[in-house]
Amino acid sequence: MRQRNRPTRACERRERSKFLVLVTVTAVIGLALAGCGRDEGGTQATPGITDTAIKIGISVPLSGPVSDAGTAQLGGAKAYYEAINAAGGVKMRDGKTRKIELTSYDDGYEPGRSVQNFRRLVQQDGALAVVGGLGTAQNAAVVPVAKELGVPQVFVASGASLFSAKPTDNPWTIGWQPTYEAEGEALAEAAVALNRPVTVAVIRQNDDLGNAFLNGFNKGIEGSQVKVAGTIQTYEAADTTVDSQITNLAATRAEVLLSAVAVVRLQISALTKARELGWKPVVLLPGFTQGFSTVLKPSGADTYFDQIYSTGFVKIPSDPQWSSDPAVVEFTSRMKQYSPQANANLPNAVWGYATAATFVRALETMNGLTRQDLMNAVRALKADDIPMLLPGLGVDASAAGKSPVNATRLFKFADGRYSQVQPS
Amino acid sequence: MNHPRRRLRLAALAAGIVVLAILPLNSTAYTNYQIALVATYAVAILGLNLVSGYAGQISLGQSAFFGLGGYCAAIATARAGWPLPASFLLACVLPAAVGLLVAIPAVRLRGHGLAIFTLALPLIGVALAKRFNGLTGGTEGRVAQIARAPAWTGLDTDQWTYYVVLAIAGALFLLARNMVTGRLGRALATIRENEVVAVSMGISARRYKGLAFSLAAGYGGAAGWLYVYTIGFVSPVEMEFLLSINLLAMMIVGGMGSVLGSLLGGVLYVYVPIVAGTVDPVRTTLLYGAILLLVLFTAPGGIARALRRTGDRLGDSRAGRGPGPPGPGAAPRAEPAASPLPRT
Amino acid sequence: MEGAAVRAVQQIVDGLATGSIYGALALALVLAHRATGVVNFAQGQMAVVSTFVAWSLTRGGLGVIVAVAGAIAFSLVFGAAVERLVMRRFERETPLIAVVATVGLLLLLNGLSSLIWGYDLKAFPPVFSGGTLRAGGAAVSVTALGTFLVLVAVVLVLYVLMMRTRLGLALRAVADNPDSSALSGLPVGNLLMVGWGLAAGLGAIAGCLVAPKLYLDPNMLAGVLVYALAAAVLGGFDSPLGAVVAAWIIGVSENLAATYIDLIGNDLRISVPLLLTVLVLLLRPQGLFGRREVVRV
C-alpha cells in the first residue's frame, strides 16, 4: 500500500482557504437569518386589512384526482370576488371601500399540506381569514391550528357536521352548506311520504360522508313505517363498478333504493345495473349525483324508474328551469369572464361562488377591522339574498351548532326535470 | 483518507448544524414546520432506501408503515395518554414487528410477486383504518396535537417541535449510516447483486432481507410518528398508496442506496409540489412526471450520486491530477462498494 | 331458479364481466413484459390516451368502429415510440428504476390527458348495442358479454401470433435472450418496438371496450390497474391466457368473498385478489400458467 504522504503545503493552503470560505458563508447565512424577524403575522393590529385592501386565503386541491372540484371551487370564489372588485370593492361600515385580494394554494387533498398552507397564508401572507376550503379531513386538520392562531377558518365547503357543531370548542371555525345528515333526513321524507310499510335498500360510501348520510336518513324515518333492509352495501370511491353491491340489494326486493353514491361514474353504474336486473324501486339520490345529463340519461334512469327523488339547496346552472334566472345568468357570465378554465357545471363552482358572497356579506356587517370582529360578524350573519341559493333558503349562522345554510329541499324528477316537492 | 478533505467535510457538517440550530429562532412557525416535514419524509425515504435501495427489494408498502406509526402516535398519546417516548417506541416497534411478519412471505417472493404483495399493504391498511373508525377517527381523521414545548425551555411549540424532530431524525440517520457502512450494508449489497452468490457465500439472504424489511418498516413508523408530532393530525390519507409511490420516486431521484440521497428525497418531496404550484398548480402532475423522467434520464443513480461524482471530479482536478484514474487524492465513498446499475 | 342460487349465479356472471375489464388491461401488461421485461405501470394511462384519441375521432364525426380502429393504429405507433424514446434507456437498469420510470411516464401522460381533454367524465359510444340478456333469472348486459368474447378472441389471436408465426418467434426470442438474438441477426430494437406497439394496441382495445361502462376521464383505469397487475402476476406474467383466466378468477372470487364472507365485506374485497395471488406465488412461484425460471450463476 502506498505511503500516505503529508499533504503538500500548497494543498494545505487550498484546503484552508476553502475552510475560511465555508465559515464566512455560514456567518453570512446566520446573520441573514437573524435579520428575518420572527413576525407571527399577528403583531399588526388589523392583520389582513389595509385602507384599500382585504387579504384572504384559500387552500384547495388543484392537483391530483379531485383537482377539477378544487379548481371549480376556487374558480367560483374568484369569479365573485373579481366581480365585486370590478364594481369598486366591498363597502364596509367604517365608510371605506376595499378590494379583495385572494391568495390560493394547492394542497393536493392532503391534510398535512392544508395545515401548512393555512400557516403560510397567515404567517407569510398575512391573511385576514381563510375562506371556503374544500375537504373534510383536510379542514378538520386545520381546526386546531385556526384556534391556536386565532384566525378565522370560515365557510368550509364540507357537509361534515364537525365544523359548525361546537362553536364554543372551535370559535374560529364554521362550515357553510347543509350537513350530510340534513341531506339524508330530507331524503327520508320521500320514503315516509309513501305512507305504507316499505323496506329501503341502502348503498353508501364507506366513510364518514356515507355514515352521516345514513344517520340522517335513519333519523328521518324514525317512528315511521319505513325500515332499512338488513345488509347495507358499501363501496369505495376508487371502485371500478358497484355491480356486485346492486345485485345484492336487488335480491332483497326492497321497494326503495337509497343510492347514497357520491361518485358520478359509480352512480351511473348503480342505476344501470338496477335497470339491467329489472329492479324498479323508488330511487333516492343525493344532491351531488342527481344530474339529468350527467347521471340519469347515461344510465337510462330517466325513462326507466317511475319515481326518482333528490335534494338540493343551490340552483344548478345546467338545469333549464333556471336558464333565465338573473342570479344564474350573472353567475354563468362571471364564471366565463373571470374563471374560464374552471368547470362551471360542477356544484363546487356554485359553492365557491355562494360562499364568497356569504363572506362578503360578513365583511359588510363587520364592526371594526380585527379578526375577532370578523368572527363576530360571521356568527351573527343572517342573509336571505345570497345568490345561487334556492328561493326561500338563506344563511343563518347564528343558529348555534347548525351549519349556516341548514335546510335542503326535496325534489322529484318527472318529465325530464326536477321539481321541488312541496311539503305536505 | 485524505485529512484536509475529511476536515473539510466535518467543517461543512458543523457549519450545517450551526445554521440548523439558529434557524428556528428567527423564522416563522410555517418555515420551522416545513423543515421538520423535510426531516420526517427523509426518515421515511431512508427506511425505504434500506430495503429497496440497499437490499434491492422493491417495496410499494412504505406508506402503510408510515400511517401505522402516525396512528400509534395519535391513538397512544392523544387518545390513551401514553407519555411521548412510549408512543414513539410503539411507533417504531409495532410497524417493525408487522414488517417482520410481512417479510415472512415477502422474502420468498421476487420481483412482481413482491411488488404486488407490498402493494397490498397500503390498500389493506387504508381499508382497516376506515373499518376501525372508532379508534382511528375514520376518514374524518383524528386530531393529535401532541407536541408541547416545556416551560423551562422558553421556546415556542414550533421551535421545540423543530428541535425534537431534527434531533430524532439526525439520530436515525446516524444509526442508518453506521448500519450500511458496516456488515449489514455489505451483506445487503451482495444480496442485491446476486442472491444466489450471496447464499453460496454463507450469507442468509432470507434473514438479511427480513431484517431490511423490518428496519424499513420501523423507520417508516418513526417517520409517521414525527409527522403526527409536527402536523398534529392523522387520517387514512397518510397510508395511501400514492404516498408509497411518491416516496419511491423521491428515493430514486434523491439517490438510491444513499443516505444523503434520502435527505435530498425529503427536500424534494416537500418542495417540488410548492415549486410546481408557483408555476401552475393544475399542471403539477405533468411537471412531476417530467421531472422524474428527466432525472432518471440524466442521472439514474439519483442526484446524490451525481453530486458526489461532480464533487469528486472537482476535488481531483483541483489537486492537480486532471483526467486520469483517481489516485489516493480521491476520498473513498462511505457507501456500499457496489453500484446498483448493472443488471445480472 | 331459487332466489339465493340466482343471486350466486348473478355474482359469478358479474365477476366474469368485471374480470374481463381487468383481463383486457392485464393482457397489455403481459405483452409489454414479454417484449421487454418491464412491468409497465403506465399501461393503463397509455390505454386511456388511446381511448381519448378514439373519442376525439368520434367527435369528429367518425363511426365508433372506425374511431376504435384509428385509435388502435395510433396506439401501435405510440407504443413503439414510447419504447424507443423512453423505455429503451431503462430496460437494462434494475427493475426498480424501470418501474419508477414507468411511474414517471404515468404521471406525465395523466397530466397531458387532463391538459388536452380535461377532467370531466365523457360518454363513449358503445361498440356493442345496449340491451340485456336474461337466462334463468340472471342478467348480463350485451356489452359485458361482448367484452368477454372479444377477450377470448384476442387471446386466441395472440396465441396464433406468438406460437405460429415468424414474427411471434422473433418476439419470443428477443424476450428470452436479447443478446443471442442480436447475434443471430434479429433486429432487436425494432422487435422491442413492435412488442410495445402491440401491447399499446391491446391497451387501446381494452380502453375502448370498457369506456362505455366506466366513462372516460384521465383516471378511468387507475383503479383497474391494481387488479390488472394482480391478474398478470397471478397468471405468471408470461402467458396471455394465464392473465385473462386469472382476471376472471379474481373478479369472481372478490364478488363471492364480498357477498358471502362477512369479515371481508365490501371494504376489504381488494384483499382477496391480492392475498390469493401471494398465496399462489408462495406455493407456485411461476404463477398459475408461467414457466419456471432458472437462474444461472
Largest interface: A-B, 59 and 49 residues
Shape of chain B: globular
Provide the domain count of chain B.
1
CATH architectural group of chain B: Orthogonal Bundle
Tell me the helix content of chain B.
over 70%
**Total E-strand runs of chain B:** 2
Tally of DSSP helical segments of chain C: 11
Level of helix content of chain C? over 70%
Shape of chain C: globular
CATH topology of chain B: ABC transporter involved in vitamin B12 uptake, BtuC
Strand content of chain C: under 5%
Structural class of the secondary elements of chain C? Answer: mainly alpha
CATH class of chain B: Mainly Alpha
Distance between the termini of chain C: 59 Å
Give the oligomer, counting copies of the same chain as homo and different chains as hetero. heterotrimer
Largest sheet of chain C: 2 strands, antiparallel
Furnish the topology, listing elements before pairings.
The complex is a heterotrimer of chains A (424), B (344) and C (297).
Chain A: H1 9-35, E1 53-60, H2 67-86, E2 90-91, E3 97-106, H3 111-124, E4 129-131, H4 136-140, H5 143-149, E5 153-156, H6 162-165, E6 173-175, H7 180-192, E7 198-205, H8 208-220, E8 226-228, E9 233-235, H9 243-250, E10 256-260, H10 264-277, E11 282-285, H11 292-299, H12 301-304, E12 308-312, H13 326-338, H14 347-364, H15 371-379, E13 382-383, E14 395-396, E15 409-414, E16 417-420
Parallel strand pairs in A: 1-3, 1-4, 4-5, 5-6, 7-8, 7-9, 7-10, 10-11, 11-12
Antiparallel strand pairs in A: 2-3, 12-15, 13-14, 15-16
Helix pairs in contact in A: 2-13, 2-14, 7-8, 9-10, 10-11
Chain B: H1 3-26, H2 29-54, H3 62-79, H4 84-106, H5 111-131, H6 133-136, E1 142-143, H7 157-180, H8 183-193, H9 195-200, H10 205-231, E2 233-234, H11 241-255, H12 259-279, H13 284-298, H14 303-318
Antiparallel strand pairs in B: 1-2
Chain C: H1 3-36, H2 43-59, H3 64-85, H4 95-117, E1 132-135, E2 138-141, H5 142-164, H6 166-176, H7 178-183, H8 188-214, H9 222-235, H10 240-260, H11 271-283
Antiparallel strand pairs in C: 1-2
Helix pairs in contact in C: 1-5, 1-6, 1-8, 1-9, 1-10, 2-3, 2-4, 2-8, 3-8, 5-6, 6-8, 9-10, 9-11, 10-11
